[in-house]
Amino acid sequence: MYSVLPYSEYLPYTGLLFFFLGSIWIAYITIHKPLRKILTEMKLLITGKKFRRIYTDRVDEVGVLAHFFNEITASLESIGKKLEEHRRISGELNLAKKIQSDLLPKETPNIPYLEITAKTKSAVEIGGDSFDFLPQEKQTYFYIGDVTGHGIPAGLVMIMVDTLVTTFASMTDNCRDLLVNVNKFLKPRLQPNMFMTMLMARWQHEEKKMYFSGAGHEYLLHYHTDTGTCESIKGGGIALGMIPDASKLIQETELDFKEGDFLILYTDGIIEGKNLNGEQFGLDRLVKTVEENAGKAISTKDLFSAIAKEATIFFEDHIQEDDMSLIVAMHKKEEATTEKETTSWENNLPEEEKQDIKDTGIASK
What we know:
Elements: H1 7-46, H2 61-103, E1 114-121, E2 129-135, E3 139-147, H3 151-169, H4 175-186, E4 196-204, E5 209-215, E6 220-224, E7 229-233, E8 252-255, E9 262-266, H5 268-271, H6 283-293, H7 300-315, E10 324-331, H8 351-359
Antiparallel strand pairs: 1-10, 2-3, 3-4, 4-5, 5-8, 6-7, 6-9, 9-10
């Protein structure tokens, strides 16, 4: 037979049971449930799904964990916004780069009694260097220019100048008037600290005469084949966009450009380019390179390759700090059609010369 204990005997056990169940319930409410919520939101975050922040005023371990989760998600949201902004800016830069690239000539043209090799290499996505060839019925204009600064502002100035030069090329018969008109329309549309230097040449086809005008640009180099010397001639003039009327400062000058002579136009990214010791390439080194190689060059490509190779070896692995552009023109005896070349600087050096540079332990730029 079973005996029934008095109710008073069960009271201590009943109290312990309720205390145990209550402790479990409190632990569930205060620890397990909040932790489960935090873990759930963390899982959503890790799997890339939509999550919610956890709001609590607790200061214990659970509160610290919730606060840490909120800080992490806030940082991720900030990074996400920055990445989205970066994508937007990159898209705009790519579009601006394409517009600028489309304006630059893809290859050098055929010009009567004149052979030309011209190439450019930007230091950043949007460069400030520009050049173009503008064939007319009886003559051809070609120029090289350099806008102050880099990036989108410089690219916009380059686009404006290219448009104005193309417009006035068919309305004027000399470099001086062309540049004066370009400056007149450009100045009101530029910020005070923006301007563009330029050297413009004009080649008369039948007369075989070369003229040039400067707008505050670098020297132009004239290699005389009969003496084997390279003459550096100051460009003169004033940069486009600096003053409203440049008619008194810009002039056109004729060159005694004989058969076999070379004309070299360049931007300051070449002569101001530095090696690892901080030494600049310099105008004297460029003149010396021309004098050492022009006499044995049978084409503009030969002389261009010699200059590019010398510059590449000199710069070594130093970061390119400025845009580099170079035009080499040669007075040809015969009116022969020459092979057109791309204006991309990277494609200039022949493969054997690229290998020669690699063999010296210097990476080609």
